[in-house]
Write a structure and sequence with these properties.
Layout lengths: L1 H23 L16
Length: 40
């Protein structure tokens, strides 16, 4: 039972890390400013 819970926790941490990496890795100071051009 503990192995299943640890595996689920590890998968969740990996998922959160991937989401954080894709959101913030390409920006110099985190979130973009409002004066930057937007698509559309």
């Amino acid at each position: 039972m503990w192995v299943i819970l640890l595996e689920a926790l590890g998968a969740l941490l990996i998922l959160l890390f991937i989401v954080w990496w894709t959101m913030f890795s390409g920006r110099s100071r985190g979130e973009r400013r409002d004066d930057e051009p937007r698509d559309g």
